[in-house]
């Protein structure tokens, strides 16, 4: 049996013990009362009963601690494992999952849904077990004292279960609402803090103040509503207990007078009935908890069971180095029903530098993302060094490729750590990569050089600096293939010249694909592909394309005239 099952089994054992101790207390109270009434015929003196009750109370307390610790900790372990697995799955999921799922939604699965599952597997299971044990044993004992009195006394209980279930459901809705308002409040506060300059320059302080007040008020109302509901539960329980006690007092009292039950029986009966009140209220809560937990489990399993199209084939091979060409054979790609790339075929020889340009949305980024398998190929095939990339292990394929995405993502760490991010062996020369990316001059201006912290998402760096850091990160791993997605869009023309000079030296024998709107980025390229609506409409060396007088030549003319070369 696994450790978790042992914890639950141990927890159940201690729950049994704790209930046994609890149930014996009213029984000894009964014996004590009978001892007081008939000292001559009773087996235990009231004093002996009091001592036993003290020991029973201690036993009850100790076993309760063990049962709670074992079961609630088991739930914590379950939560820990699901969280781990969830995160592992998230890192493996296809990019399409992230395009179709909101970040807030993913985060809420990590917080709300995991909490619901923990509550179900901890408190839920413990309370269900406890209620089950207590009901079986207490009702049996009540029945033994007097069957009809038992039926009358527990009659109001189903009403209590229904009311608590209803109230706890509404409380859950309120708590969801409150959490959503809190999330809105936090993101509004974060947005306001990060855009404080913009708010001031447009004199929008009052507007944001009013917006914040609205959300804060709605958060307050949700919480007040929750407090009102919570306040309802106690009177409901008191009502049900009172009704039960009234029945016991009225009917039970008469039974004592008639001599059908003893006074001790009456005391024990009242004790057992009181013990049932809390577990009965719990029953309503457990029902809500299990509905909520089941819904959360199914939301979590959507991620846990989500299919990833980009995975390693069972017999995936390791790509040690890339010596040969990259071939694209009739490659197509669609986002849903929208065709983004159609029938792309071309061969990029080893060491060739290929520029890719075309209008906005023509599929350039998508084409680059297909090569390291960041997106799955819908149709056709990409072959590197004679191997279909779907048969190459993802880790080895990606380790041979340096990819500089359009938007540089930086972690809030130092420049050095950001550059060395992909260098698992920490063998690369960070300073050299920084130099090759044309970033040295900027780094030297910072007091702490490479150790400068870049702030959250690199707020302390300019757009161009972020891009160059991103290039340095890709260069550090000395890749055989370099994929650059508009890497110089935020870099000024003078700096672009220097970076291209440095990059040109780094290119060496590497195969390079560089996407750019600025044609000047293609100065070292042997060939340029022009994409339009997902198809290659022109290709050739820059000189050949200029001579063709097509789209490329038109773009060149425009940029030449506007001075953006
Ligand atoms: N995650 C996505 N989900 C749905 N459609 C997408 C997604 N990403 C891109 N697209 C669409 O695919 C098309 C091609 O996008 P892509 O980013 O490849 O174009 P691009 O040529 O690189 O554009 P740009 O020059 O602006 O960088 C666009 O029409 C875009 O709207």
Automatic annotation (TrEMBL):
Q: Which InterPro entries match?
A: AAA+_ATPase, ABC1_TM_dom, ABC1_TM_sf, ABC_transporter-like_ATP-bd, ABC_transporter-like_CS, P-loop_NTPase, Type_1_exporter
Q: Which PROSITE patterns match?
A: ABC_TM1F, ABC_TRANSPORTER_1, ABC_TRANSPORTER_2
Please give one Pfam family short name. Answer: ABC_membrane
Q: Where are the transmembrane segments?
A: 12-29, 44-66, 119-139, 145-164, 232-257, 269-289
Record key words, sorted:
ATP-binding, Membrane, Nucleotide-binding, Transmembrane, Transmembrane helix
The molecular function terms of the Gene Ontology recorded here are: ATP binding
What SMART domains does its record include? AAA
Q: How does it sit in the membrane?
A: Multi-pass membrane protein
Domain ABC transporter, which positions? 326-558
Q: Where in the cell is it found?
A: Cell membrane
Under which name does UniProt file this protein?
A: ABC transporter ATP-binding protein/permease
Q: Which PANTHER family match?
A: ABC TRANSPORTER, ATP-BINDING CASSETTE SUB-FAMILY B
Q: Does the keyword Transferase apply?
A: no
Which stretches make up the ABC transmembrane type-1 domain? 9-292
Q: What is its main location?
A: membrane
- Can you tell which superkingdom this protein's organism belongs to? Bacteria
The answer to keyword Disulfide bond applying to this record is no
């Amino acid at each position: 049996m696994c450790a978790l099952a042992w914890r639950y089994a141990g927890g159940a054992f201690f729950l049994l013990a704790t209930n046994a101790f609890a149930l014996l207390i009213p029984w000894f109270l009964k014996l004590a009362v009978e001892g007081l009434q008939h000292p001559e015929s009773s087996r235990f003196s009231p004093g002996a009963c009091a001592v036993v009750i003290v020991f029973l109370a201690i036993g009850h307390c100790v076993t309760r601690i063990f049962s709670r610790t074992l079961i609630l900790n088991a739930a914590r372990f379950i939560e820990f494992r699901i969280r781990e697995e969830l995160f592992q799955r998230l890192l493996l999921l296809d990019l399409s999952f992230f395009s179709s799922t909101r970040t807030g939604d993913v985060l809420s699965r990590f917080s709300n849904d995991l909490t619901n599952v923990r509550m179900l597997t901890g408190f839920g299971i413990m309370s269900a077990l406890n209620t089950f044990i207590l009901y079986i044993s207490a009702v049996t004992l009540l029945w033994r004292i007097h069957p009809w009195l038992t039926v009358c006394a527990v009659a109001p209980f189903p009403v209590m279960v229904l009311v608590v279930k209803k109230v706890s459901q509404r409380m859950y809705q309120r708590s969801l609402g409150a959490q959503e308002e809190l999330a809105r409040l936090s993101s509004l506060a974060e947005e306001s803090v990060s855009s404080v300059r913009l708010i001031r320059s447009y004199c929008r302080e009052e507007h944001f103040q009013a917006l914040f007040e609205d959300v804060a008020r709605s958060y307050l109302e949700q919480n007040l509503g929750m407090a009102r509901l919570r306040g309802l539960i106690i009177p409901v329980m008191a009502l049900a207990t009172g009704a039960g006690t009234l029945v016991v007092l009225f009917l039970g009292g008469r039974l004592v007078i008639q001599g059908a039950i003893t006074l001790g029986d009456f005391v024990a009966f009242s004790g057992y009935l009181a013990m049932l009140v809390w577990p009965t209220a719990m029953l309503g809560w457990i029902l809500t908890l299990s509905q909520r937990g089941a819904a959360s489990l199914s939301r979590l399993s959507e991620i846990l069971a989500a299919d990833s199209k980009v995975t390693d084939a069972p017999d995936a091979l390791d790509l040690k180095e890339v010596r040969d060409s990259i071939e694209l054979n009739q490659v197509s790609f669609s986002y849903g029903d929208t065709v983004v790339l159609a029938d792309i075929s071309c061969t990029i020889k080893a060491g060739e530098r290929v520029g890719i340009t075309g209008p906005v949305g023509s599929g350039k980024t998508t084409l680059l993302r297909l090569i390291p398998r960041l997106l799955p190929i819908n149709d056709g095939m990409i072959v590197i060094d004679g191997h279909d990339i779907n048969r190459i292990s993802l880790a080895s394929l990606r380790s041979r490729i340096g990819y500089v995405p359009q938007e540089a993502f930086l972690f809030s760490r130092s420049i050095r750590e950001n550059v060395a991010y992909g260098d698992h062996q920490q063998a690369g020369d960070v300073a050299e990569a920084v130099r090759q990316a044309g970033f040295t001059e900027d780094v030297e201006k910072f007091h702490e050089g490479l150790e400068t912290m870049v702030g959250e998402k690199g707020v302390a760096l300019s757009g161009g600096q972020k891009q160059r850091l991103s290039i340095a990160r890709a260069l550090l791993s000395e890749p055989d293939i370099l994929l650059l997605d508009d890497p110089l869009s935020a870099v000024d023309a003078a700096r672009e010249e220097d970076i291209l000079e440095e990059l040109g030296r780094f290119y060496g024998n590497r195969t390079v694909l560089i996407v750019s709107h600025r044609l000047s980025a293609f100065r070292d390229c042997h060939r340029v592909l022009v994409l339009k609506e997902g198809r290659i409409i022109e290709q050739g060396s820059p000189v050949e394309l200029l001579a063709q007088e097509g789209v490329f030549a038109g773009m060149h003319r425009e940029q030449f005239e506007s001075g953006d070369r």
